[in-house]
Amino acid sequence: MTTHRPFGASARRASALAFVAVAFFATAFSARAQVGSSAVVFLKIEPDSRTAGMGNAGVALADNAAALFWNPAGLAFQKGTEASITHANWLPQLSSDLFYEYLTAKHHVPGWGTFGGHLTYLFLGEHEGRDAQNNPTGTFKSYDLAVGLSYGAKVGRNFGLGTSLRFIYSNLAPGQVVGAQETKAGVSTAFDVAGLYRVPEFNLGSIGTNVSFGFNLANMGPKIQYSDSQQADPIPTNLRVGYAVQLDFDDYNSLTLVTDFNKDLIHETQVDSLTRKTDEWYQAIFSSWKPVRVQTNALNEEEAQYETLSVFDQFTIGAGFEYWYGSPRLFAVRSGYFYEHPYNGNRKFLTLGAGVRYNIIGVDFSYIYALQEESPLANTMRFSLLLNFDR
């Protein structure tokens, strides 16, 4: 079993047991093989309970403050002021003390567009450091943090563009000595470029229909390092594309169908038997579009088995629906399905969700039902509180 790497090679060598735990907890991927690996994968955790209940699909929906994650171009079509916070006890199946928090807000400025900001925090627990002789070096707390700003504006009547900028601070193992070097917090920056097109409303018989298409090229930025620049890891640059179809049957009943396709834009090259080189983000957004050969077992090189993954195999697919009742919207039920190729992470799960709206307050809930045995994502629940100050 392999996992994505959440920190640089030198940091991994310090306090091996603690770092293996951090790696496993942070990624939540029960993978058998991967196309590539990256640091700070907490940036990929879907923060919005509403869309997480729909199979983790929302790039073409993006109609509330959570658009900052899914598609900042969705801000272009939003008015007013809104804020939300999401909480999750992360990977409860492992009885860990990890937790995840996401705070976001957006505000429309007439004549300028809509601005937003977010804060993401993942607490990775307390660990005991060990030196090369396995002597204790004290305890430390590990966490990942990101803060960012977003902006979206219309370009024409039906098309919006958006962008996000974020600062990333990854404090996995401060003050641990590896060889002659002391590990430090990793720091990086990233930006997104996104677009959203909404087809003019039309009728399917008597059913009002809205269709939208979106994309988000997210987390483009320099590698992050925890000791020296020779052991830096890429951040999780990825592309998300998808569509949404909203069917308004009458004033009280509405159904939305969503599908997202998501691909990591990370490319690794085998330099020798011990060394792999990863491209910079501006190279990987082009070089990662090719079939790759991955090892599918944990045997030594002589007995290793390999498979070739096509470009399509490297995508994850999320699809789901949301049904709303009420005028204005009062109560929602949601469900979805998420799929990842067995040799590219092997995550497969169903999602369930519900939501209520009353006056300015909205509450959303989502739940993961894992389809693999002993999945660390099993029974993960998210809760979100939404405040819409313009109602």
Descriptive overview:
Helix content is 8%, strand content 49%. The protein has 391 residues and is mainly beta. The chain has a single domain, classed as Porin (Beta Barrel). The strands form four sheets. The chain has a 14-stranded antiparallel barrel. A two-stranded antiparallel sheet has the order 6-7. Strands 13-14 form a two-stranded antiparallel sheet. A hairpin with a 5-residue loop joins strand 3 and strand 4. The protein is globular and about 70 Å long.
Which series of helices and strands comes N to C?
Answer: HHHHEEEEEEEEEEEEEEHEEEEEEE
Q: Tell me the CATH architecture.
A: Beta Barrel
The whole-number mean of residue pLDDT values reads 85
User: Beta-strand percentage?
Assistant: over 45%
Supply the number of helical segments. Answer: 5
Strand order of the largest sheet: 1-2-3-4-5-8-10-11-12-17-18-19-20-21
Number of strands: 21
Number of domains: 1
What is the CA-based Rg, rounded?
Answer: 21 Å
